[in-house]
Amino acid sequence: xxxPNNLILRTRFSDRFCHWIVVICFFLVALSGLSWFYxxxxxxxxxxxTPQLARLLHPFLGVVVFLGxxxxxxxxxxxxxxxxxxxLWLSHTKQVIxxxxxxxxxxxxxxxxxxxxxxLIMLSITVLLVSGLIMWRAYFSxxxxxxxxxxxxxxxxxxxxxxxxxxxxxxxxxxxxRGSISGMVTGYVSKSWAKQHHDGWYDELQAEEKNKGTKTx
Length: 217
Hints:
It is a single chain. The protein has 9 helices and 2 strands; from the N terminus they run βαααααααβαα. It is mostly helical. A two-stranded antiparallel sheet has the order 1-2. The two termini are 25 Å apart. The mean pLDDT is 91.
């Protein structure tokens, strides 16, 4: 099926598939993790069956989340390298939020806010992996001192809450910017959406199309 001329491919199927696998596993891990954070949340362990099953599956699903994000890191890191144009976006953050931008911001495939979120998520999941391995009772915790394991539990809890907040912000912004969620579902966004939110990326794509047309002629 040929895509309409007004649509642009933003996210390939393999990237979207990985993204949604990470989403599902993350929510299972987050909810089961919260069930041990505070007694009133104990019922959340039911998302993975019984409390015993939750304790068994939680770390394995956490590793799946890490591997999924690692794949996404290598796929998207080149688009998330900070550059000079990010300063322009950051200096107009208020206008962006209010949707009152009156000048081109030269935004690439991802804006400065998305780049910051990208690096914070990758940092958080790395901390969660390391601390999680240290406190993983079935396999690794016996290799470390009790004091080290206790510190790992504390760090793991803080990083886990931090990552949940980052993901909550990511979801909120995806809903707020109309067209973002459908873009991650279908892979395509409209040209008007790309031009409005990522004008620099849009201009690059237009230049590529123009060059291809020239070569064909």
